[in-house]
Design goal:
Chain lengths: ~325, ~180
């Protein structure tokens, strides 16, 4: 198969295993490209992409922008805080105004779950979801799985635990879908208040003990506690959370095997992960960031290839 | 579909030996030369030529593989997109004499994209082109080979298929004609 089965990247849920493998195989070649003296290819030189960010982001926005530039696309950046959205314009109107300036693809982050899908049904453009509320963050899940594949060769049968604020995390949901499609076993670990009640329906195991989870897994993906999404008090104090669910060198040295530590960033040193672990050889956090550019190049390239050139009119 | 044999394995062997000799004439000990196979099918020719040259000269030859998928001019125009292959170039190409190696030269568009793609690795002193088969009346761009195995005159509706014993039963070149 040389083509994706989807026309937009809205969530991992819509992708097939062979879609994910096609993205990974294409990303392999782009990873080679971004490590050359000249890190660019001309593929998307006739494509214009807008990065619509209705929520703050550093890593994802920069990573997308760099991926677009490495593919030679023209890019526009939009952040909601300094735009007409503040003057009461609707999402569809905002996007249609941008599209009438001949923009081909939209990368969007939005605080509302389902915003990307809503947009894909209402405007005529290729939509890439860069995170929609607590729903999905597909490119993060792809780069996470790709980074595991890079380190462990294969995901089939690998045991991955996702630790922390599962309730507010789009990374967790996308990761669960992606890892399961690739044949990995997934467990979530965290305080009861931060684990959604029906998560077992997705076929994942639930644990409340970090020690037990670490002893079980090959890979631990540590999530940040998302204070900005928490309107209630979910645990007594950061100090208590950190003592129960923060990973330290002690945890890793007590294990009789070597596990891989991941984090989607931004990391809160000393809360969910200690500085020593974050900077240790166990951690592949910075590899994840590098792979993010290659994965996003692959996604943009493969979606653009479905957007056929039209020389009529 | 009619399949006509153009070259058998003995003839292919003779041609590859001749091409290797022509390369030695122009490149001497290959100390400043790099042979680059164009992905995917140029690699079969490349590996054979490199083997022959290393046996004859006793030197280790610098060589690599170049994939041109991201540099092609038919992106978003093909019905069936091409899959990207590996590019493997572990030597610096700045100031080197490059020889592109491919199996069939047809429209010249792959070679054009290779000329673009190679610039990501530096500015070579010169670039030559070696092909096993030159479909000489099918060119769409002003590109000609420096080393040619065999010239084939064919119609656009026909196809030239090169098979190698590494993947098929034997080395063979066929001309495939659609049934009239």
């Amino acid at each position: 198969m040389s083509e994706l089965s989807v026309n937009h990247l809205l969530g991992i849920k819509d992708l097939s295993r062979s879609d994910i493998e096609l993205i990974f195989n294409t990303a392999d070649q782009f990873k080679d490209v971004i490590n050359r003296p000249i890190k660019k290819v001309p593929s998307l030189r006739d494509i214009t992409i807008v990065n619509l960010f209705f929520e703050n982001s550093t890593r994802t926005r920069l990573s997308f922008e760099l991926a677009e530039k490495r593919l030679s696309a023209d890019t526009l950046n939009f952040s909601a805080s300094s735009s007409s959205v503040k003057k009461g314009e609707t999402l569809i109107d905002t996007v249609n105004n941008i599209l009438s300036m001949k923009v081909d693809m939209v990368v969007m982050r939005h605080p509302n779950p389902g915003a990307a899908e809503f947009l894909s049904r209402n405007v005529d453009s290729t939509i890439i979801n860069a995170g929609d509320g607590a729903h999905e963050h597909p490119t993060q899940a792809l780069l996470d799985a790709y980074s595991i594949r890079e380190k462990h060769k294969n995901l089939e049968g690998k045991k991955v635990v996702i630790v922390g604020d599962i309730l507010h995390s789009r990374v967790a949901l996308s990761n669960i879908f992606c890892l399961q499609k690739l044949g990995a076993e997934v467990q979530v670990c965290g305080p009861t208040t931060l684990i959604p009640k029906y998560i077992k329906g997705l076929g994942v195991a639930v644990s409340h003990s970090l020690e037990e989870s670490l002893a079980w897994c090959d890979v631990a993906n540590m999530l940040r506690v998302q204070h900005e999404r928490q309107e209630l008090q979910y645990f007594p104090s950061i100090r208590e959370y950190s003592q129960q669910y923060g990973i330290t060198m002690n945890h890793l040295e007590r294990l009789d095997k070597e596990i891989t530590i991941m984090h989607p960033g931004p990391i809160n040193r000393g809360v969910e992960i200690s500085s020593e672990v974050a900077d240790s050889d166990y951690s592949i956090i910075l590899n994840q960031v590098e792979n993010g550019v290659a994965i996003r190049m692959a996604v943009l390239y493969l979606l653009a290839s479905k957007n056929k050139m039209n020389f009529k009119d | 579909m009619i399949k006509k044999e153009l070259l058998n394995s003995a003839l292919i062997e003779v041609i590859l030996n001749r091409l290797a000799c022509e390369l030695i004439e122009n490149h001497g000990d290959f100390s400043n030369s790099v042979l680059i196979g164009l992905q995917p099918r140029g690699l079969f020719v490349l590996n054979r030529i490199v083997d022959l040259l290393q046996k004859t000269t006793g030197n280790t030859l610098a060589h690599g593989a170049l994939d041109t998928t991201f540099f092609r001019d038919d992106f978003r125009r093909r019905d069936e997109p091409l899959l990207a292959n590996q590019t493997k170039i572990d030597v610096l190409l700045e100031g080197k004499k490059i020889v592109f190696v491919d199996d069939v030269l047809y429209s010249g568009r792959s070679v054009r994209s290779a000329l673009d793609a190679i610039q990501s690795f530096g500015r070579p002193a010169e670039i030559e082109l070696l092909v096993l088969i030159d479909r000489r009346f099918s060119r769409q761009l002003p590109i000609q080979p420096n080393y040619t195995g065999k010239r084939v005159d064919s119609l656009d509706s026909q196809r030239v298929l090169v098979e190698w014993k590494e993947e098929a039963k034997k080395d063979c070149v066929y001309l495939i004609k659609p049934k009239a």
